[in-house]
Amino acid sequence: MRNIELSKAELLRRLEMVGDYIFKIQAIERKHNVDNGQLEGKNGLTIAFFRTNIMVCTDIENGMVDAENNRVEKEWLSPSEEEEQEDIVSGKTKKVKAIIQALKDIDVDGETMEHIIDEVGGTEQMLRQLVLKRPYKETSELLVEKVAHEVRKDK
Fold first, then answer.
1. What does the chain look like in DSSP terms, one character per residue?
2. Which one has a higher pLDDT value, 41 or 137?
3. Are 9 and 49 in contact (CB under 8 A)?
4. Other C-beta atoms lying within 10 Å of the C-beta of residue 34
5. 64-99: per-residue pLDDT in tens?
6. How far apart are CA 30 and CA 16, in angstroms?
7. pTM attached to this predicted model
8. Is 29 buried (19+), middle (13-18) or exposed (0-12) by CB count in 10 A?
9. How far is 33 from 134, CA to CA, in rounded Å?
């Protein structure tokens, strides 16, 4: 196996893409009335089984994480471990809500928010997420504006 080094943002984006592709495959199967629960491989495992596992592994939005931010699947935990993980997530959620409220309280402006995102190492990930999740027209208009600004700056 080759050693591929990806940033966290690059890895998360690839997981998002795989998750999106799974949903597209599922839509095609529905369109053509394919019952993937009936299609089995040599080992008896169905397409539905593999798709479910891929969906679990690529669910970066709703996944549980441990104290070191490593992904933990709830179905792999004992009841006491599950409760412990929920406490960690709950604590993290409370902290995030407190941070958001503090930012609202100081009426944070765009430049300060950009500085905060840069300080926590999220600039590249934020840029990627915004570009990929916003409508094409919106991002292409911004790119045109950026190019025009660079041309004026160079004159």
1. -------HHHHHHHHHHHHHHHHHHHHHHHHTT--TTT-B-TTS-BHHHHHHHHHHHH-TTT-EE-TTS-EE-GGGS-HHHHHHHHHHHHHHHHHHHHHHHHHHHTT--HHHHHHHHHHTT-HHHHHHHHHHHS-HHHHHHHHHHHHHHHHHHH-
2. 137
3. no
4. 14
5. 555 555 555 555 566 676 677 677 767 777 888 888
6. 21
7. 0.41
8. middle
9. 32
Kindly state the tokens that stand for 11. Answer: 């890895």
Q: Report CA Rg, the chain.
A: 21
Q: What is the pLDDT of residue 154?
A: 80
Extract the tokens encoding 61.
Answer: 């939005």
Task: Kindly state the tokens that stand for 117.
Answer: 């995102």
User: In the numeric block, which tokens belong to residue 85?
Assistant: 């993980």
Closest CA to 12 of 132, 122, 89, 125: 125
* Tokens at 53, concatenated: 């596992």
pLDDT value of position 72: 57
